Sequence to fold (103 residues):
Amino acid sequence: MTYNSSFQDRAGQAAKAKQEALDRLRAKAAVDAKGAPARKAAGQEREAGKAEKAAAKKAERSAAAEASAADAAATAAAIVPPKSDAERKAARDAKYAARKKRK
Fold:
């Protein structure tokens, strides 16, 4: 394509390129009927492998989530809630009573 090419020139070049592409496509060998079952079996094996790998990954994620939930529950149980005012007062009174008893 040149700077001065006309529309007809460009349309002709496009048609020629399209025809060459079609010729190359038609010249390709047809699908081999003998190798098709082997390719199909290999594809099925790949799909089975992918499915197995995905299932293993899903199980691993599930186990990790359960472990994380168990860890969170354990830490939540280990946290001691703050004492109420009455409990703090009772502890203080017991401490004072013990000190007074020593004297």
About this structure: The chain has a mean pLDDT of 89. Residues 1 and 9 are 8 Å apart (CA to CA). The radius of gyration is 40 Å. DSSP finds three helices and no strands in the chain.
